[in-house]
Amino acid sequence: MKKIGVGVLGATGAVGQRFIQLLENHPWFEVVFIAASQKSSGKIYEKAVKWKQTTSIPKNISTMLVSNVDSKNINGAQIMFSGLDSSVAEEVEKFYAEMGVFVISNSKNHRMYENIPLLIPEINYEHIKLIEKQPWSGAIMTNPNCSATFFTMVAGVLNKRWKIKNINVVTMQAISGAGYPGIPSYDILGNAVPYIGGEEEKMETEPLKIMGELKDGVVEFADITISSQANRVAVIDGHLESVSISFKETPPTIEEIIRELESYESPLSKFNLPSAPKYPIRVMKEEDRPQPRLDAGFENGMVTSVGRVRKDSIFDCKMTVLGHNTLKGAAAAAVLNGELLYSLYPEKFK
Ligand code: NAP
Prior knowledge:
The chain has helices at residues 14-23, 45-48, 59-62, 86-98, 121-124, 146-161, 185-188, 199-210, 254-262, 292-295, 298-301, 327-344; strands spanning 4-9, 29-36, 67-68, 79-82, 102-105, 139-142, 164-173, 192-193, 213-215, 218-220, 225-233, 239-247, 281-283, 304-310, 317-323. By secondary structure, it is α/β, with parallel strands linked by helices.
């Protein structure tokens, strides 16, 4: 496949830096445009960014000029990966879709619009068809809130086989989920904060769209009740989630649940996408796993880890779920969505 030019909006942020890192040597995409706030625009990238990754800034990007997010001079970028702050994402993402660009966003702004796909593609890749109903010459696609991603990955697999009635989720979320510089060290070191603004609402609504069914061009939301509680903890990367699930009918056994999760082969395998793991979920048998520091980065942070699957005295089962919030929960998920788009709609790219 010919490499196509892509841009990164919010390239200096926590998610934006992950895009820059992931897109280095990507077989299909090449970064040709980067943009951020006025504070950064007009500077070269290495002067504008506080780089927090363990790899170096890619050479070709370190001296690239950071543009404004209203720039029409986008150097031929056909896809924009967006890690923009939600205060600006709504207008900026629409601006580029109107210009004919395909915007793949991490922000909350467009996720719940009827004609915009909200994708965990291993669960609902067919929802990508919603872009055909959008009024722009480009399009907008989104991935979910990071904490919604991981339990929905697991629930989405189970719900395909046994319809789910209720989900209860309690999160322990990493500080990188708040961006950089994020939560002050004084508030989080040796501490936990039992509140993350807006997070619980997203966890209780977004999964219903993702697990919904596309019928006659409209997503019919899943009939599931979700209760969530979000906590910020002193972990750098990786959201850990205690998840309890009840089913509508006779529940599967614990052994059946484990078998279903670990044997779930990604429906994306048939498209040969560079970032798609064949098995998007791994089930760990050790009694004290998964753990953020040890397990969040498994398979380039693209696999959701599950452990401690067991019976519950109120729900039918409970388990611990873990995922990497800036990778499968954000940038890497968006790159995967970009690969899916390019693979399913090659005619849209020159
Ligand atoms: P962040 O570190 O604060 O980065 C925000 C980015 O947006 C920066 O590049 C910033 O540029 C840019 N920006 C801020 N205000 C702007 C403005 N007025 N005009 C243009 N650009 C502006 O945040 P983040 O954690 O990367 O999150 C980015 C988005 O992804 C958010 O919508 C967030 O909710 C979502 N998200 C984050 C995660 C996560 O784990 N962190 C996971 C899923 C989704 P400057 O550096 O120039 O200010």
